[in-house]
Amino acid sequence: MKHLRLFEYIDAVVRAGSIRRASETLYITPSALDRRIQQVEEELGTQIFERHAKGMRLTAAGEIFLDYVRRHMADLDRVRSEIEGLKGLRKGHVAIVASQALALKFLPEQIRLFRSRYPGVSFSVRIADRGEALKSLIAFEADLAVVVFPKMSSEVMQLIMVAQPVVALMSALHPLAAQPTVRLSECLNYPLVLPDASLGVRELLQPILIRRTNKAQISAETNSFELMRGLLQDQRSIGFQIAIGTPDSLQESTIISRPIDERDVPAAPLICAQLRGRTLSVAAARFADQLTQQLDNMNLSV
Amino acid sequence: MKHLRLFEYIDAVVRAGSIRRASETLYITPSALDRRIQQVEEELGTQIFERHAKGMRLTAAGEIFLDYVRRHMADLDRVRSEIEGLKGLRKGHVAIVASQALALKFLPEQIRLFRSRYPGVSFSVRIADRGEALKSLIAFEADLAVVVFPKMSSEVMQLIMVAQPVVALMSALHPLAAQPTVRLSECLNYPLVLPDASLGVRELLQPILIRRTNKAQISAETNSFELMRGLLQDQRSIGFQIAIGTPDSLQESTIISRPIDERDVPAAPLICAQLRGRTLSVAAARFADQLTQQLDNMNLSV
DNA sequence: GTATAGTGTTCTAAAAAACTCAACGCTCGG
DNA sequence: CCGAGCGTTGAGTTTTTTAGAACACTATAC
């Protein structure tokens, strides 16, 4: 929409941190950008930005105004979506930020399912760690967050939570692959490939591993489950993941998962959340419905 | 603010009901107005207005969009107010819609009290009947409503309610003026000046009067308490009002009030309300605080 | 029926706003 | 002390918005 170009300008300047950098992403000149910001400040009767030698920082008034700007932009998206919704959700967009565990299987399946019913709805999915995911919600960059073991804040509203058991990942040719379930102590006999601190699973394992630190041999730490699966091809190493993020054993995968005995490792909370007080677009709200329903079913079957 | 001129245009067209009438209040030509509306409709991909021979009516999509427009105009007011609030509420505005009973004493006192603390805050007060008052809230024309015996809707949020006893009004020279309190049956011996159906007090009296319709002699019905007080100068007639709306007996008023026995007439609910889900401006919120506090004190002392 | 008064709309040109380009003054870090 | 980055300004250009008059349409009154 034409009339909120000004809002996009302000938002861009905040994100870029300076007029000149923002002007590049906006494809306009710094002078034009500067003038419009000055105009707003004049209309408000207050400085929105502190001018600094290396850029612009928001003032207290600017923080208030930025919040208004972002809410306003997100709200217009919702309005457009609702208007489209009058015609049966033919168009729409859902912006998701999610933990890595969901990138392999869960989200692709869910999006495929949703788009089979609503082909006109498009998706943008950003994979991020738990901290960044919630930040994205607050900055109105994402409609929904699906995150493993997040540290919740009061600004974020939890839509559903399911407990996800932690599983051990290994090559199909691994000695432990023959067992239906494994004990954590068995895993410690093999080299471990651990998720790093940015991932939720690690936070669950950490206190347990510390107690047995002399037994465990940590061969690698990574923030990429893809890399982890690659390392497991040595047929010796063992990795960890939550159940929902494991490769589908039906497909010809060389990596398999085995549940870890519940007594050894507690389940990981997986939550779906949105920004508190925000009204989601029709498309996002309906996708959230689908997610909560599917996750709920999953919860019951476990 | 410059960038929401478009919003004001749309709002004005809705209020005026036609482009030409709206263009007069906006001081622009109908053609300019028409073009910008068409531009919005093109950007939204939908008609916002139904074109009718005698004007424009909102479509379903238009209703959604108008709600967005009005919410955001009100929200910008709040944002500006909050920014001013950073400097100690030096400026601000509160728009009130209230029942007639409050126009004589209560609201003037409250506004005087508030402005003694915050001289920079201005007020606009519209006196309206119960139906119109709530409509004003919903149309974002007023921040707060103070109404006698309103029929609440789910869109409106009640901030406080106090029970207001109904009192009889009469000349200071009236036969009943000698008594500290009166019974309703005593009043029926005199000509009655009744508030009309648009006023809350009438709704309380109506079922009681119907039962004694043969005894009561109704000399006048009016929607103006001012007129009522004028009619009472005959030293015979009796009028009705809620306690908060009666003239101050300390001042040299020729009209006095006497409580009616509680067994005869139930108390009238007086409520202060705002639009549900709306965040008030700093000034309006603080005035609402004052109102609820004062009303609450009043409630305890009764 | 037909005139009429109201409506939305389109065409033109003019006014206003937004933007570009080039230059300036400033502050920081090497 | 200098250079790289920053925000800012002035003059000129482009785009957007508005004005004014004319047109097409539809209810309503006569």
TrEMBL record, chains A, B:
The record's InterPro entries line, in alphabetical order, gives: HTH-type_LysR_regulators, LysR_HTH_N, LysR_subst-bd, WH-like_DNA-bd_sf, WH_DNA-bd_sf
Sorted alphabetically, the keyword list is: DNA-binding, Transcription, Transcription regulation
Care to name a GO molecular-function term for this sequence? DNA binding
Keyword Transcription assigned to the entry: answer is yes
Pfam entry (one): HTH_1
Q: Where is the HTH lysR-type domain?
A: 1-59
GO cellular component, alphabetical, reads: cytosol
Instruction: Spell out the family assignment given in the record's similarity comment.
Output: Belongs to the LysR transcriptional regulatory family.
Record protein name field: HTH lysR-type domain-containing protein
Source taxonomy lineage? unclassified sequences, metagenomes, ecological metagenomes
